Amino acid sequence: MSEPVPAWAGRVGSRWNLPNILTTVRVVLVPLFAWMLLSHPHDEGWRVGATVVFLLAIATDFVDGRVARRYGLVTDFGKLWDPIADKALTGMAFIGLSILGELGWWITVIILVREWGITVLRWGIRKYGVMAANRGGKLKTATQSAALTLYLLWLAALPAPVRWLAWFLMGAAFVLTVLTGLDYIREAVRMRRRALASGSDPRP
Questions:
Q1: Alpha carbon distance 102, 105 (integer Å)
Q2: Whose CB among 28, 36, 151, 172 lies 3.0–4.6 Å from 50's, allowing a Cys bridge?
Q3: What is the rounded distance in angstroms from the CA atom of residue 53 to the CA atom of residue 113?
Q4: With helix as H, strand as E and coil as C, how does the chain read?
Q5: How confident is the model over 27-53, as a mean pLDDT?
């Protein structure tokens, strides 16, 4: 059972409660992060600054989900836009690193096709229900975030053991991204079948 909602968290049922505001802030931070990463890619201070902005944006993801679940502030807006905000942020990190030649484009393309393909799928099956992020998806996001953080800190300048960790995490993130994508597709098929089997008219 959720706890009573404090005033600072907003109202139940309101689109502009704290979790949804944090999701919106994460979207707004994406262009700032992109500018900081790409404008001075070989300046150590700018790379650290871009990484800090990236981590702040990732932190809003942790906070908005925790607050939403604790106080019963989960909304359809949050279910749909929270993963979109995540994909915009991590997608910009993948693209930026590939533009800078620090991450293979094949990795970025496959990951982005999966990420945005699942986002389109979420919108496409809304008439059958909202498909929220599952535990596998959350683990994928956490692994991507850890790998990207190390890459953003200028991989070539990191000590060898840290570079090895970054490569391992990026490989794990790639595998998790593909596997969880397949899992979401299976879930979408099940949702559609359940809706059709129940004989209820899907929402327009």
A1: 9
A2: 36
A3: 25
A4: CCCCCCHHHCCCCCCCCHHHHHHHHHHHHHHHHHHHHHHCCCCHHHHHHHHHHHHHHHHHHHHHHHHHHHCCCCCHHHHHHHHHHHHHHHHHHHHHHHHCCCCCHHHHHHHHHHHHHHHHHHHHCHHHCCCCCCHHHHHHHHHHHHHHHHHHCCHHHCCHHHHHHHHHHHHHHHHHHHHHHHHHHHHHHHHHHHHHHHCCCCCC
A5: 94
Please name which of 79, 190, 97 lies closest in space to residue 137, comparing C-alpha atoms. 79
pTM of the entire predicted model: 0.82
Residue extents of the structural domains in the chain: 7-198
| Tokens describing residue 196 | 């059709």
Instruction: For residue 102, give the DSSP letter.
Output: S
User: How many other CB atoms are there within 10 angstroms of residue 9's CB atom?
Assistant: 19
Return the CATH superfamily for domain 7-198: CDP-alcohol phosphotransferase transmembrane (TM) domain (1.20.120.1760)
Res 15 pLDDT > 70:
no
**What tens digit of pLDDT does each residue of 77-87 get?**
766 777 788 88
